[in-house]
Structure to design on (285 residues):
């Protein structure tokens, strides 16, 4: 009885060992991991920089999707990735310029069955917050300007006083001014910091002005510089003049060889004779 019990115990241990080994093999086969990392918050206008690390097999593809809301699937941007042989960290920056403040979602999405092979400690979802301070900036100069007026940057920052503000101007070819602190003048009625700055630009295009203060990034304001319109004098339409055949006109004024003009004396004589005849006729009647 005792020997039989020992034998059954040994068999049970063997079964348990085999099961554990099988579970270990299965676990190692599915122990793929992926880790998505994004900052907890970022100012609107600055890029949202995320990274992805994974030990998934080389050639595995997946998407990183940036959603405008946590609960409503409204994708702002999507980018596809492929796992490389060296499993190097992958980076992605999402543009936040013009987006409203609030909570957003960044998620790793697979098109195949790879998600089911991930370990439980994988991170495929991040919920960053976009902080919008752009409403603190009020621009009073025109956002659309032409040469040689451009580029005038004038306005105020809420409750900034005379602490100054840092600006950086970027065009299509990169930075054209700053980053540089410019002075501000306090508006005693509101406490705002009023600024004015002239930046020399050499070509038309779109220019983004980035604002920062002691508390960090504030926001971006975009100016559109247009090419100068040169004034072209209005063209005077040519007046059509009547065509005159001068040869014909001259020939009508000059006497021809077959015809000569009547003399003045001949005309006077004819008039005199006509008058005398009319008097004689009247007397007879």
């Amino acid at each position: 009885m005792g020997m039989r019990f020992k034998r059954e115990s040994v068999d049970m241990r063997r079964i348990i060992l085999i099961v554990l080994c099988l579970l270990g093999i299965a676990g190692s086969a599915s122990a793929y991991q992926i880790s998505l990392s994004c900052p907890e918050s970022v100012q609107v206008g600055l890029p949202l920089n995320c990274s992805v690390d994974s030990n998934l097999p080389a050639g595995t593809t997946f998407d990183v999707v940036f959603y405008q809301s946590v609960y409503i699937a409204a994708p702002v941007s999507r980018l596809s990735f492929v796992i490389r042989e060296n499993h190097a960290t992958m980076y992605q920056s999402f543009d936040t310029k013009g987006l409203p403040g609030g909570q957003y979602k960044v998620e790793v999405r697979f098109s195949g069955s790879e998600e089911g092979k991930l370990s439980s400690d994988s991170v495929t979802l991040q919920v960053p917050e976009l902080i919008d301070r752009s409403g603190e900036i009020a621009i009073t100069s025109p956002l659309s300007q032409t040469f040689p007026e451009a580029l005038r940057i004038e306005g105020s920052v809420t409750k900034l006083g005379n602490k100054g503000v840092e600006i950086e101007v970027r065009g299509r070819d990169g930075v054209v001014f700053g980053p540089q602190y410019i002075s501000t003048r306090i508006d005693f009625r509101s406490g705002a910091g009023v600024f004015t700055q002239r930046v020399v630009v050499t070509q038309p295009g779109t220019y983004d002005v980035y604002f920062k203060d002691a508390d960090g990034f504030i926001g971006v304001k975009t100016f559109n510089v247009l090419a100068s319109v040169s004034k072209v004098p209005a063209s005077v339409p040519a007046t059509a003049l009547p065509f005159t055949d001068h040869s014909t006109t001259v020939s009508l004024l000059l006497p021809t060889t077959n015809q000569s003009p009547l003399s003045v004396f001949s005309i006077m004589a004819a008039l005199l004779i006509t008058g005398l005849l009319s008097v004689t006729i009247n007397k007879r009647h």
